[in-house]
Amino acid sequence: MFERYEAGERAVLVHIDFSHEGEREDLEELRLLVSSAGVTSCGEITGRRANPHPKYFCGTGKAEEIAALVNAEEAQVIIFNHALSPAQERNLEHLCQCRVLDRTGLILDIFAQRARTHEGKLQVELAQLRYLSTRLIRGWTHLERQKGGIGLRGPGETQLETDRRLLRERIKTILKRLEKVAKQREQGRRARQRREVPTVSLVGYTNAGKSTLFNRITDSGVYAADQLFATLDPTLRRIEIDEVGPAILADTVGFIRHLPHDLVAAFKGTLTETREADLLLHVVDCADERIGENIGSVQEVLTEIGAEEIPSLLVYNKIDLLDDAVPRIDRDEEGKPARVWLSAQGDEGIELLFQALTERLGTTIVELTLALPPSEGRWLSRFYELNAISATEYDEQGRSCLQLRLQERDWQRLLKASEGRLADFILK
């Protein structure tokens, strides 16, 4: 589609350290991303700046240094560990005479390689098209562009306008298909809620060991590898938890610091499994030096998708890589499990995780009486769906007096949905 330089498998990596903490990236993480994409690094260039250069991002002198290294190593692509503007990409490509890829484009390429299911492929294509829509200018050079003045008028729609229209139409088509898939997922979720089956969602930084833990718990054959973004497509499996009964365990895509917004938007449907979960298992690579930063990055994404209020249990994985760590449960001030230390690869501490799940998901039954006025009758159907109504009477004012018996988590969920109004109707 584009008349741009072909990208190959030999890459020059560029990493710039900025003084602003929020703009900093990790060079080691870039190496892991490049390795996950199947690209060979033939050189690295690093530097320091206070702010990005408007034309080349890295400064004129550093850009010329990159061009010299590309020429010497015969590299086919330059990969930046940062998000570049379309203009910066074009300027660098013109200077270095080879393809330039930024961090977002690299992650999108990895996602495109990993997507297996129909939904996953649609989500990746949607993210790619949104990313591409800002990079159409100068993609084509062989077709007319409209100009003003006699003898200079173009024949009609320019190629740029055609490309933009085709992209918009394709994005609309994908969104319709994803909406259909989302409705099917929603039906499955409603059925589980009616059967009162709790959902536990695995979240965590990419390559923290979520899929290995998922396979260990469920005896599944989900693809797991020591690479970033090995898992893209959400997988659901049924597990049995003592004193709780059946539960659904969901394996989801891993998070990463500064996860591109297009990806978060595209994977909203997939991440709904996380947003609707009863408990989050936040898997952490406890052998990683950046453990604190990784936990913070996951919290940022959870906040972005509206899942920050869901109860979570920290799972410190890979204790086999530490010298003095042993499987154990750390508890909070109330005595509830807060952290579980285990090794999914070494099969250590899995029984402690199930013990913690039993304690965290153990059902607390709430019994109360509500006097619902006619204007709030819509909540009746919600209570019937949950099979929570023990008896119903009507008083002189036309209110429905309901005797309810339901699980604590369902009551809290309804309270949140009603913005606390249901609490006003409780009869003391």
UniProtKB/TrEMBL annotation:
The keyword GTP-binding applies. Pfam families: GTP-bdg_M (PF16360), GTP-bdg_N (PF13167), MMR_HSR1 (PF01926). Gene3D superfamilies: 6.10.250.2860, GTPase HflX, N-terminal domain, P-loop containing nucleotide triphosphate hydrolases. CDD domains: HflX (cd01878). SUPFAM superfamilies: EF-G C-terminal domain-like, P-loop containing nucleoside triphosphate hydrolases. It is found in: Cytoplasm. Monomer. Associates with the 50S ribosomal subunit. NCBIfam families: GTP_HflX, PRK11058.1. This is GTPase HflX.
